[in-house]
Design a protein that fits this description.
254 residues, mainly beta, Jelly Rolls, 8-stranded mixed beta sheet
């Protein structure tokens, strides 16, 4: 597999997850996993998981080819590839506020409907930055906001402002996930563009604050975080092995 990145790509295997490398691709593989066991197979390019020394700053282009072992109905947990700041590290007391620009898949019960009108699970291109000053200024009012947005009319009015404060932009992707596709992400200082097979699928002026790390993964976790205050996290059993294959990974300055 061709790899051209700004720094060394490392592998992470947890709970039976396996990173299998061949001349053609890297397969991030999850075997069957029992209940209450977390499993992950991951690539990342930050030098130290504890310090999170992120090497990536815009203007930057990420491109790769990828395919999954199944479609949305067959996969469990989460998977994807792109840039983020890994909010939680081993032995870290306080999580970081997440920042990301990536192609992301989450299977139910995963549900994070951060973009109004875009479902909270499935396969999508997504950008978000919870460290923006606009979001931090609204955070003290979150408990009241959760209550108000349980009413549909107020949700329609209020969540668009919250979405802008978080810097969220998303689009659901309707494609054959089992087929090879070329995914590209152009991260600029004030915008992000996502392409699938050279077709623009999302362009947004909302760009996450650098620096960020590259990550590609597949795991069996889920998160539920809704504007109405439903907050849950957990793992799901994997009944049948599943995988994400990646080839021709290229991260380069624009």
């Amino acid at each position: 597999m061709r790899l051209r990145v700004n720094s060394t790509v490392s592998t992470l295997e947890i709970g039976g997850g396996i990173v299998e490398c061949s001349a053609e691709c890297v397969r991030l593989h999850l075997p069957p996993v029992p209940e209450r066991v977390y499993a992950d197979a991951q690539l990342y390019d930050y030098a130290n998981l504890r310090r999170a020394d992120y090497p990536n700053r815009p203007p930057l282009r990420l491109s790769l080819r990828a395919r999954f072992s199944g479609d949305e109905s067959a996969l469990r947990g989460t998977a994807g590839f792109g840039f983020w700041n890994q909010p939680y590290m081993p032995r870290q007391l306080v999580p970081r506020l997440p920042r990301y620009a990536w192609f992301f898949f989450g299977a139910p019960p995963h549900n994070m409907p951060f973009a109004y009108g875009v479902r909270g699970n499935g396969f999508k291109a997504a950008v978000g930055d919870f460290s923006r000053l606009a979001f931090l200024s609204l955070a003290p009012f979150a408990p009241l906001g959760f209550l108000l947005m349980r009413r549909p009319a107020l949700y329609r009015r209020l969540w668009r402002a919250a979405q802008w404060a978080i810097g969220v932009a998303e689009v659901s992707l309707a494609l054959d996930m089992t087929a090879w596709h070329v995914y590209r992400l152009d991260w600029l200082p004030r915008s992000v563009c996502f392409y699938v097979d050279d077709a623009l699928v999302l362009q947004t002026p909302r760009a996450p604050r650098p620096p960020l790390g590259f990550v590609a993964w597949i795991d069996n976790q889920y998160a539920v975080i809704t504007p109405q205050g439903d907050l849950r996290f957990g793992v799901v059993p994997i009944r049948q092995a599943q995988w994400l294959e990646i080839a021709d990974l290229d991260i380069a300055s624009l």
